[in-house]
Each structure stands twice: as C-alpha cells, then as structure tokens.
Amino acid sequence: MKERNSVSSVKRVLINCASQAQVYGICIADKVPEVGRDMCLKEFLALKTCMQNSHIDKIKKEKDILHMMQTRAGSSGSDALSHAYIQSPPIRCNIPETRGLLYDDGNKLLLSPTGDRVLSWKVGAPTERNPPNSDLIGEGAVLSIRYSLDQKAIAIQRSNHEVEFRNRETGMTFSRKCKQDSERILGLFWTDCPTCDIILIKTSGIEMLLYDPEQNGLHIMEAKKLNVNWYVYTHESRMLLLASGMQCTVFSGYQFSAAAGIVRLPKFEMSMTKSESNSKPVLSSDDVHIVTIYGRIYCLQFDRVGMHINVYRFYRDAVVEQGSIPAYSSRVAVSSVDNVILAHQLDAKVVMLYDLFLDSLSPISAPLPLLLKGSYGANSRSKSEESESISSAYEGMIYVDSWNFLVPDLICDVDNGLVWKICLDVEAISASSSDVPSILQFLQRRRSDPAMIKALCLAITRTLILEKRPISVIAQAMDVLVASYSNSLRSGSIPSATQNTGNNHATDSGVVSEHSIVSTDRAKSVIGDSSSKVLIHSPSTSDDDVNPEESEEPAGDKSLKSSVPQQMASHGANVAISPDEMHRFVFTLVEDEMSGDPSYLVSVIVEFLRSASREKLKLNPDIYLMMNHLLARSNQHATIALLVSNKIIEPSKEVAMQLVDLGQQNFKIRKLGLDMLRLLSLHHDYVSILLQDGYYLEALRYARKHKQTTGCGKMPEVSARIVA
Amino acid sequence: MGVSSMAAGSDAMQLQLCVFDLRRGQQEGQELDKILFFYPSDCPFLTQLSLIGLCEGIITFTRIFSPEAACEVIEAEKHSHVFYEAEPDIWMVLVVEKSKDDEPVWRCEALQGVLKEVHSLFKMFYMSIYALLDKQPSGELARSHLHSFITDYLSDFQLGKKVQMPSFRDSLKERGTVQMLTVSREVALEVQSLITAISSCCNGCDSIILFQDLLVSTTLPPDDTTNLFSYATLRLTPHALSSSTSSSWSYLRKGNSTPNLSNLTLLNEHQSRSLDASSLGQNRQISSIPRLLQRDKWSKGKDGFLVPNFSGGESTPVVWNQQTEECKYLCVYQQKGITVVMLVPVSSLANGEQELVQVKKEFLENVAQRVTIVEQKLSRGWGGENAYHVSGYRYLLIDRDRSVSRATPTGKVTTLTKESLLYLNKLREEVDIEKWRWHRDNPDQEKELEVCIRAKNNAWVIAKVTRGKELYMVLEKANETLLYATDAVEKFSNRYCEGAFSMEY
Questions:
Q1: What is the pTM of this model?
Q2: A606 in a domain, yes or no?
Q3: How far is residue B100's CA from residue B102's CA, in Å, rounded to a whole number?
Q4: A184-209: b or e for each residue (b if 16 or more CB lie within 10 Å)?
Q5: Buried b (16+ CB within 10 A) or exposed e, B40-52
Q6: Structure confidence at residue A283 as a pLDDT band (50, 70, 90)
Q7: Left if phi > 0, otherwise alpha if psi is -120 to 50, otherwise beta: which for A142?
Q8: Does A679 touch chain B (CB under 8 A)?
Q9: CA distance A706 to chain B (A)
Q10: Is residue A529 within 8 angstroms of chain B, CB to CB?
Q11: Which of A610, A698, A702 sits opposite B193 (nearest CB)?
C-alpha cells in the first residue's frame, strides 16, 4: 500500500509540476554534456518548490478523504475532527511466546505470562520503552495475576479453584484452594485496607484475608456469605460490586479503602428494560463500569435492550440513580480521562464525552471518532511523514474487537499486543462550542497539562474581549476564572502570598498522606452515622476544604469519595489564572491590540473587579493604574473621580502618584491623588506635592502635625523651599 | 427710585422675577419687547418696564468698570435685586423684599443659585433662550416656553399663596450640587456593572441611577449630571412622584404644598393678550408646549417605566446634553427606591419613538432583573432618611470639584434656633464674598479659610474652606472653649471627610 502511494505521488507531482519540470529539462538538455554543480539552479528550485507544495497538497487531500482515520498534519487542534485521541506510539507488549495480556490496575502493571515467567510493564512510567521486568511464576495455567501493592508478593489464579501466592523475595509459594463442588473463585485483588490484604471473591461470597509473608500463609479476617454471579472492582475507586440474582441486577457494594476501612453499601438493584419477548435479559459484567470522576464514584450500567446507559452515583449510605445517557451501539465501553467520561460506541466507532461535574448528563460534544495522533518532532516535514507512517502502520486498528478498555484511560489491544493511552483534545473541545463561559469552566476543571490549558484559557479570554462580545458573557467568563482561582487558592493547590497555609509545598506523596489522614477522620464519621439514611446532610464540621476534590463539591454533599487522590498537577502549574496573570496576559495584551474607545475595556475590567471582590481577592494596583490610564485617555475625569470616591479603584501609593501625574492636565484629578496620599498617611509624598503646588502653609502645618511620623528631616526641607 | 412704585403695590408683592433681553426693544416705544418673562405676570406693564429700566441702567453703568461681570446685586432699602446673566445680554433678575429687622434673611448666592438652576433646567430641555429666539425672532416662542417653565418651577417654592425663596433657613443646603449615596465597594461594583448592562441595551446611552433622592452613579459629565439630578429629585424620584404625602423626605426640598397653578393658567392668557403680538395660531402653539416641569405629569406605568403625560408635544421628553450637544430621549425606569434615568440619543433611533419601545423591551428583558437585585442591596445598606445625620452636629459639606454636597437632614436642621441659622447665613454670605475676592485676585490658587464664631446664643458657627472643599457647621449646646469647637471639627473631619479639614495641630 505504501508503494502504491509513492507511485501515485510521483505521478501527481509530474502532472502538477509539468511546466516546471519541462523548463528544468530543457535547461539541462541545453547544457549536457557539461554537467556542473548548481547548474540550472533557478529552474531546479522552481521545480523543487512545486513538488513540495504538491506533496503537501496531497497530504491535505488525503486528510480530507480519510479524515476519519487519518491523523492531522499538524498538532494544532483547531482543525480537529475529534475530541479524543489515542497517542502514538503505543506501548508494545507483543513479545513472542506470551500468552495474552493481563492488567493489574492496583499497581498499573501490564502483565504477560510466558511459560514459567511473567513479564510486567509499568504503565505511565516515563521509561515505557524499557524492557519489561520479569518474574518467575512457575509452570501452570494463569487466569489472572495480581501483584501485592508493595509488590513483594504475587497472587496467581491458576484455576477456578486455586490461587497460588508467591513471595517475590524468597520465592516461597503456597496455594489456597476452595471447595471443588460448591464454589468457584471468581477473582481476587490486593487492598490497602487496614484490616486485610487480599479480597477473594468466590461464587459463595467474599473472604477478606490477611497475608503473612513470614509464615507464608493467609489468615481469614472476615468472610461474607452471599451468592455472587460476577464482580466488578477497580483499584481506583476501591469499590467492589457483587452481582447476584437471576438477571444479575442485584448488587452488594463494598469499599475497601486505606482510610475508611470497609464501607458496606446498601443492597441496590439496577434497572433493566424488558425485551419484547418474555425472556429476561441478564446483565453482563462487561456492561457495568465503575468510574471515578472528581473523586466521586459512579457506576455506569449499559442497558442493551433499552439502548441507554444508566448512571448511578455512590453515596456513603445510598446509591442514587442520576439518570441515563443514550447509547448508539450494541456494545459500549467506558473510559475516564481527566475526569471526563468517554462512552465508546464500539459499533458506531465514535466516542461521546460527558462531564458529570454539575450532574448534567448532556454530552460535551457531538459523537466523533477516536483519533490516532502521533507525537511529532519539531520539523514539519517529519510530521507529515510520520503521520503517514502512523496511519499506515495502525490503520484499521481503531475500535477493533480485540480492544480491551482498561480503567481508567487505557486500551489494550490484545491481538496486537499494544496498549494505547486515551487523551482529550481540549483545544478541539473548546473550539467546538460557542458557550465560552461553560468552556472555561470545563477547562478550569481539567488537571492534565495545566500549562497548555492555562494558555488556552487566556487566549480564549483575550479573543472574547477582542471580539467585543456582550459584557454579560464577559462577566460570566470572569466569574468562572476568578472563582476557579480562588477555589484553588483556598484549597492550597497554589501558593499565595496572602494565604500561605504552609501545606502548599508538600510533595506528591505528602499530599497523598495528608489526604489519607483527612479521609481517616471522615471514615470515622461515616461509620458513626451509618444508621442515618438521610441522603443529603448539612456539611459536618470536619468537612474542611482541605483537599481540592472536596472543595469542588457542592455544599451539603456527603458523597462516597474514592480514597485515591486525583492526579493533581504540582502546584507550580495550576490551570487557575491569578489576577496578576489576568492583567498581564489578558488586559495588557488586549489593550495593545484594541484601538479606539477604551470604555469597553473599562467595563470588562469592572466586571473582573466585581468577580474578584466577590471572591475577596486582593488585587495588584497595576489594574487600577490601567483603568485610570484608559479613562484619562478618553477624558472621563468625572468617572475617575466617581470610581476613586466609591473605592472601586482602591487607594494605593501607585494609584495616588498616577493621579497626581494625570493631574498635570486636570487639577481636580491631582487633588484626588493628593487626598489619597493623605488618606494613606504617606506624609512625605503628601507634603512634597503640597510644596510643589505652592501650598507652603498647608505643608508646614501638616508637617508639624505629623512631625513624629515624618521625622524631623521634613521641617528643614519645607523651610528651605519657602526660603527659595 | 423706580422701584418704589412696585413696593407701593401691596403686601402680596413679595417677589419679582424677570427675564429680559438687552438687545431687543432698542427703539423707544418698543421697550416691552425686551421682556421675555415677568413674574407676577399680572403686574402692570409700567411696573415691569420700570424694573427692567432700572436693571438695564445699572448693568450698562457697571459694565463700564467691569465688563466681564457687570452687576451681582442691588441692595436697596426694602429690596434686594439679584442679577444673573443667563446668556450673553439675557438677564434674569430676582427681586426679594427685605425683612423689617436688620438681619439679612437672604443670601445673594443662594438666590442666584435659584436663577442658575432654573436656567440650567431650561437649557436642558430647550437648548437655550437664544436658540428659541433664533427660531422665532418675534420672541413668542421663547416667551411662552419661559412662561410655562418658570411658573412651573416657581410652584415648588409656593407656600400657600406666597412664593418663598430659599432663606436663612436653607443655609445648610447647597443648590446646584448633587447628593450622593455612600455605598460599599462591592455594591459600587455591582452598580457599575449595571450601568454597563444598561448602556449595552440602549446603544451605549448615558444613564444615571438614583436611590431615593440620592445619586448612586452616573455616566454623564458633572454639569449634565447636576441638571438631571435636580430634575429627577424634583419630578421623578419616588418621593417626587408621591409629593402629596408630605411625610416622605427629600434632601432638596420638602414637598409641603400642592401647587396652586390656577392663577398661573390665568396669567398665561393674560400675558398673551396683553402682549398682543400673538395671533390665534400662536395661542394654540402656547397651549401645545409640553410643560416638563409641571407637577404630577409623570406616573408609574405597569412595566416600571414612568409614563409622561404632558399636554401636547411628543410623548417622550427630549433633553439636550450640553457636553455632547445631542438630543436625547428621557427614559425613566423605577423600581421601589431605585430610579434609572436613561438618555437615549435621538439620532441612534432611526424610527424615533417606535424604536424606543424596543429599547424598553430589551431593558425589561435583560436589565430589570438586575435592577431589582441592586435595589435590594442598596436598600439593605441604606440608613434611611437620617442616614447622614451626625448627632450633635448640624453641617453642610460641599465638594466643589465634584459638585457634591452632603448635609444634615432637613428634619434635624429645624431643631436649630433661628439665631444660629441667621448667624450661619451671615457667615456664609461673608465666606461667599471672601472666596469671590480671593478668586478674583488669585485665579490659580484656592482659598483656604477658617472662621469660628461664638454667637450670642452661645452656639458655635463654623466655616472651613480648604482646597475646593467647604464645611459649614453649627454646634449648639456646645462647650464654651474654642478648643472644644476646633476639636469637634477635627473629629468630624477625620470621621466623615477623610481628614480633609484636619489641618490643626
């Protein structure tokens, strides 16, 4: 296919650049046989340019035709045709002799058993291309493998009745078997719950086991008897859902978190639409997804008959159905990327995006295909070449049957031994909507690539102002940005000069442990009020805004939190835009570009000040200087006086001096500045200006009155001026 | 003196007000043509002419020495004549009777303030007297406009059958200034944002916002603000609309009388007949002038907009912006205590008033909700009628730079004795003269002045003028030492004037 492509491209070049080629050919023919360097250079350059252009043309055309599967020739998101993409290159795990790929989400390990060993790749580690680790596991069938969370032991499920435990240090093994006839092992996972290490799920119930590496054995801490058809567990949420009943729609839920211990959820039933015939559909484990979004835990249940996805949210003492989102495919997979839910409609080969932050179940954007995107070098030519090679290398590999969606944002292509990571194209998402305030809101909630998102937010805001959009829209946008900033200020995720909590500089692990401590406090209260069945409580006093996830929650909310802290960007790169940045990167830049009547910009700044005052943010005087400057430029001196007198322009030395300066043209403005100096008790400046204006007596009286603060140095100066 | 003839009239004659044009009626026998307005209009022409003759003579004489500012006042034995050159060669003269005893009851500047105000308001609606004279050289147009306008204006000063000019009792008030509501920064931002919202729904029009009788915010230049503010407090604010209920309150005046216009309408006919220049057609024209200062002509519509109900003319009044030199529709929206006055440029509306309906609709859809919110915030933060009363003090604070004043509420001023007020009136008169002289000699510098008087009734009467700001104060029942008085001023200054008057040590 690649060869055919290159042939056709040569052909096209010859067609498109026929005249240039002819000129060049004639030139060469004239000079032959005296062949020399740079011969017919001019003609050659013309041909070369033409050829390059037509090559680019070709790429553009191809892109148009194959836009569904083809990558774009640039990394800019403005012409994107999709809102989510998978990043090339994928992790390759297709080593010969391996038997399938397994995923251990507790440790984020990709596992591939081979013969008597297991190869493991750490997902998300920077050294993805490094050779895998290898562990000896001995011969035998492998149904699943789970490394312990400290990675000192490996649990290998050998059959439906046997689990083997292997100490990685000593190599010692032992097995745990269950009754052959009455029960089956469905699976197991390691937990960081304080009371147990391993949860073993069997058809007859669950066992909570403590692993003892010294004695090389297991102790049963607790066992719960119940019929289990299948189970769903994600380490991210620490939630275990056990399905039972004829249709597998009755669920028992447990959360095993490090902080909260074991939280048992009340039994609940998921609804299933009845098919027309009398047969009752059975819910499959593939159709139930646990998703962790903004630290909240949701369950998405795909109803194949009703063709919709039911959304449930887990609270401490209740499971509440949130509504449903439509499905457009007979097979649906769910991922979550940066707190956005991606509903993959596998048959339609499109993905839909949902942001459940405000419990709104409407999609962010239209259904669009998943894109394949390469990581490009700086050179634009290599970009296009690479995009070609990528599209050819992985063509037809999107939404294949062998794709296995892993929690939260990975796709494992079992057949090809590839693992893809799903990413969001926030630029494309933001370009797709005209509702700027909600786009900004969406962007401010994102946690991945903060620097880029911040730049995007700033650019959006600038465009908003430059396009002179209605002030009401600007006001909403300002509200969003300022609220987001003050939120992150309060939560301590960005250091602030005024509100330094001292916890800001905690390392990542520090944040985790701090979070855990908080959760411990919470857990106690969970158990304490477990008898209460009231869904919405007033916020308890222990609900301080300590961690960012919680501070984003609406008040009065007692939702079940995932105990894993979200991937918070380090505080140095937060998406929130500080007032200072707003001034420097929005207002100043916009002022340069905007010409004419500055009153629009003044109104914009007033809206910003309003948002800032609502959040009680302290602002740098620079912004007031700018306002005064703008107003003075349009001779709105009365407005300056009004704004100064009602303190919209907050008094500061900088502002006062500027007013004094502006007062060269307008004496009343000068007096405003002077009054401000007096108000701020800037005695020295006040007296100096009085002297400059020739009010010697006043200056003397003032200096005398405030001599203790101005120091005695003032008086000689005053007298000297008077003498002069 | 020619004036004596008027004085001989009767007790009923306590006040005369005339407007005349020195350029008109130059020929003998046509002197009547000079007169553009005369109050009372039933005054015999001979009396009118003799007053104007006197005034003209004095003006011509004093101009020899002071061509710029000819004559301010004539103090006669029984009357004061206050002059105001409204437009070049168009003079307004107010004649008031002096009281029997020696104490001056009037303050010249305050009376001039009345003339200035009525002329400013006139200009706001009709551009200028000149413009009207230009439009119709015979002067009938100008006469009829002035007649209805000034008589309507004077109706506010009517006390029973008398017209009561501002006297010493009003010396803690300053005409031609704006009274502002003090708001917190948060509310100020809210209001500022509201102003933007308003201007975006009426093609960038100007607007002023009042709460009760106080100004909250304005986008107009100071002169236009002052005029519109005066008009609003006279006719538009909730208080002005319900002027019959005398219990309500206003900084500017007490609406303590129902207008007695019966004689004024009579005068109308009288004047047009007597001037005999008018034809039937002009009579009709006179009756069709929208009398914008007439009382009770604004009423609140169901949608919250005030509905003008002037006989004749366009239904929506048009005002003339001095600064921008533009005609603008006066559009008033009111919700409880808040009054939003919008000035929609006539030129911005292609279809005139039909389009104004559209503007109003847009306002109701997009802004009215926010007005409600702001109103709630303002009324929550408002201290009521006596919000700016400072116990123990009776004060008037003027910021000349911004044309803003604040004073002890009227109700509290009445507790002062007559003596104190008379002293204050006298002191203010002195300060006015002192300031005027200083300004004449040092046009670039501002007067600094401080007077503390211990009055016969043991009250302290204090005036302080510093850098464009003025403070007048009466302290009754105060301690007898001067130190006490200055201390009281210092405290007041620090507390309520941001230290503007704290210059002592």
A1: 0.76
A2: no
A3: 7
A4: ebbbbbbbbbeebbbbbbbbbbbbbb
A5: bbebeeebbbbbb
A6: confident
A7: beta
A8: yes
A9: 8
A10: no
A11: A610
Whether residue B127 sits in one domain with residue B260 = no
Domain that holds residue A496: 434-548+571-581
Residues of B in contact with A698 (CB under 8 A): 448, 466-467, 503
ipTM score assigned to the predicted complex: 0.83
Half-sphere exposure (Cβ direction) of B343: Cα atoms closer than 13 Å: 26
Look at residue B156 and tell me if it is in a domain.
Answer: yes
Between the CA atoms of A355, A361, A366 and A368, what dihedral angle is there, to the nearest 10 degrees? 60
- The CATH number given to whatever domain includes residue B404 is 3.30.450
Q: Which of B184, B185, B486 is the best substitution to test chain A (most A C-beta atoms within 10 A)?
A: B185
Name the residue in chain A with its Cα closest to that of B495: A679
For residues B191 and B162, state if they share a domain. Answer: no
Residues A145 and A182 in one domain: yes
By mean pLDDT, which of A32-41, A170-179, A560-569 is the weakest? A560-569
Do B145 and B203 belong together in one domain? no
CA distance A462 to chain B (A): 19
* Of residues A646, A695, A705, nearest to B183 (C-beta): A646
Same domain, A92 and A204: yes
DSSP state of A184: -
Q: Which residues contact A354 (CB under 8 A, 6 or more apart)?
A: A325, A340, A341, A342, A343, A361, A362, A363, A364
Q: Provide the number of structural domains found in chain B.
A: 3
Q: Which residue has the tokens 């503390």?
A: B452
Residues B211-241 have pLDDT tens digits of 989 999 999 888 899 999 999 998 898 888 8
pLDDT, position B143: 92
The answer to whether the Cβ–Cβ distance between B467 and A472 falls below 8 Å is: no
Domain boundary among B381, B407, B438: B381
User: A333 pairs with which residues across the strands?
Assistant: A344
A711 Cα to chain B: minimum distance (Å): 16
Measure CA A386 to chain center.
Answer: 27
Q: Which of B189, B196, B467 sits opposite A648 (nearest CB)?
A: B189
Strands B206-211 and B162-163: unpaired
Residue whose tokens read 């002035």: B146
| Count of domains forming chain A | 3
Residues of B in contact with A676 (CB under 8 A): none
CB contact under 8 A, A694 and B190: no
Residue partners of A355: CB distance under 8 A and separation at least 6: A339, A340, A341, A364, A442, A445
Render B305-357 in DSSP notation, one character per residue.
Answer: BEEE--SSS-SS-EEEETTTTEEEEEEEEEETTEEEEEEEEGGG-TTTHHHHH
- Residue owning tokens 């369950």: A299
B235/B99 same-domain check: no
CA of A607 to nearest chain B CA: how many angstroms apart?
Answer: 6
* Whether residue B390 has pLDDT greater than 80: yes
Distances (CA, A) of B458 to A228, A270, A724, B396: 99, 89, 45, 20
**Which residues make Cβ contacts (< 8 Å) with residue B412, sequence separation at least 6?**
B386, B389, B394
CA distance B68 to B62: 10
d(CA B63, CA B83): 13
| One domain for residues B327 and B413 | no
E strands, A386-495, where?
403-406, 410-413, 418-424
Closest CA to B125 of B272, B314, B251, B282: B314
CA dihedral over A571, A575, A580, A581, signed as positive or negative? positive
B188–A648 C-beta distance less than 8 A: yes
Q: Does residue B505 sit within a domain?
A: no
Choose the closest CB to B192 out of A606, A614, A698: A606
Smallest Cα distance from B309 to chain A, Å:
33
Q: Cα-atom radius of gyration of chain B, to the nearest Å?
A: 24
* pLDDT per position as a tens digit, B6-41: 333 344 457 899 999 999 888 888 888 999 999 888
